Amino acid sequence: MTKKMILDKSLEEWTKAYPLLKDLTSLKEVFWTNPKQTSFNDAMKKISLNEADVKDAEDRLDRFASYIAKVFPETQANNGIIESPNVRVPKMKTFLEEMYNQEIHGDLLLKCDSHLAISGSIKARGGIYEVLKHAEDLAMEHKLLSLNDDYSTLDSDEFRNFFSQYTVAVGSTGNLGLSIGIMSAKLGFKVFVHMSADAKQWKKDLLRSKGVTVVEYASDYSKAVEEGRKQSDADPKSYFVDDENSQNLFLGYAVAASRLKKQLDEMDVVVDKEHPLFVYLPCGVGGGPGGVAFGLKLVFKDNVHCFFAEPTHSPCMLIGMMTEEHDKVCVQDFGIDNVTVADGLAVGRASGFVGVTLENLLSGDFTVDDKTLFVLLSALADLEDVYLEPSALAGFRGAVDVFKTEAGKMYLKENQLEELMKNATHMAWGTGGSMVPKDEMDKYYQMGRTLSNQE
Ligand SMILES: *Cc1c(COP(=O)(O)O)cnc(C)c1O
Question: Is the domain of 311 the same as that of 338?
């Protein structure tokens, strides 16, 4: 019998090199800190993207604001800028402290990307940005648009006819498809969304109602992306939104940071050397949390500490970063099934681009059990009246783990943060949920209640 090899090593050899794999493959909740993290300045020397790239993305979104406000009236109040609320959740903090029997030093905030206009998830940042950038590129290439035009002119039959010659395609577990699909269809593009088996029926129905062609796969996200890419590449007028490698998506997400800085200023939340900011971001393939984390590092540098959160069944970024093999390995290689209620995070192979870009910037990554997600979901609904989808709850546990786990305590100690944590702000990034139909949300909520009562 030959042993099954993962790249050049057996599972036993991998586990010997990285003992945390024992807990990961037993689907236990873990907390990992990144031994390769360096200072912001050192990390940036190896990264080709910079502040100017994020500023360019921000300016592009500003140019499109008049168009967005016109075609999505729900964005008018914010003048066509798609941005989400940022709120204190003190009752949730108390709940977490009691649930885990662990004091959380500092304030707890929730960033409500669940309530972003147009597609109700963090994908309304990167996804919509990339479609707008593609539309702008095409229109400018054909001399139909210039930088100083009022972009609300894109809401016309002339432009819709122009864009209808072109196709936009994407592979998705659901939310990216929603955001790319809704935005592309609005501009007039033909759209193909390749959906993995995790994708919820209501998302497919909604997209079809907007004229989007939804292609369904019985397998996971990687397959949907692979097939989508293949089909799109065969058509020269088709543009494939590459969730695994796209710098445009990444930059669209990164714009969140400068806007967050303004929100924190308005709330009198200070972030500086004495007042650290800890941000916990649910992670699927990595583009969303990676882009946001990159933007946050540009704005707050060494004063922000970014952690990713993944399901115990899909810890692709953690395994990729820890082994430094990134997208060369997937969770299935290690016998982990990538089956989770957190459909937005059901990704078995992480983005290599994101893993490498964040190699020296990310503070750590932790995993959360599906049951925990449901319990947190119903608690947040009861205590703060905010309804999130399961994926979006994954971040909360980070605020407990930095104090409760050995790795977390070590992180605070090594970064000389122990004395400063009473001044800290913890932020769970609530990545989605406002568009979940009520009957679906009721089921999630009931599940959370049932599981809470069993404790
Ligand atoms: C997509 C998604 C994420 C993670 O984003 P990635 O770019 O896949 O890492 C987190 N939460 C929700 C609700 C999502 O839809």
Answer: yes
Whole-number Å distance, alpha carbon 374 to ligand 1 midpoint, is 17
Do 12 and 136 lie in one domain? The reply is no
Compute CA 133 distance to the chain's CA centroid, rounded to the nearest angstrom. Answer: 20
Report the C-alpha gap between 451 and 318 in whole angstroms: 27
CA distance 32 to 21: 11
Residues 220 and 314 in one domain: no
Name the domain count of the chain: 2
Write out the residue range of the structural domain in which residue 140 sits.
Answer: 122-245
Q: Which atom of ligand 1 is nearest to the CA of 389?
A: 13
Residues 6+ apart with CB under 8 A from 247: 49, 53, 353
C-alpha of residue 390 to centroid of ligand 1, in Å:
11
Q: Do 203 and 347 lie in a common domain?
A: no
pLDDT digits (tens, 9 = 90+) for 54-109: 999 999 999 999 999 999 999 999 999 999 999 999 999 999 999 999 999 999 99
How does pLDDT run across 183-237, given as a tens digit for each residue? 999 999 999 999 988 889 999 999 999 999 999 999 888 899 999 999 999 999 9
0.85 cut: is pTM over it? yes
Ligand 1 atom at shortest distance from the alpha carbon of 174:
15
Ligand 1 centroid to 61 CA: how many Å? 21
Output the CA 173–ligand 1 centroid distance in Å: 9
DSSP 361: T
Same domain, 259 and 402: yes
Please report, for the domain that includes residue 233, its CATH number: 3.40.50.1100
Residue 312's pLDDT band, with cuts at 50, 70 and 90, is very high
Pocket of ligand 1 (CB under 6 A): 121-123, 175, 282-289, 344-345, 347, 389, 391-392, 431-432
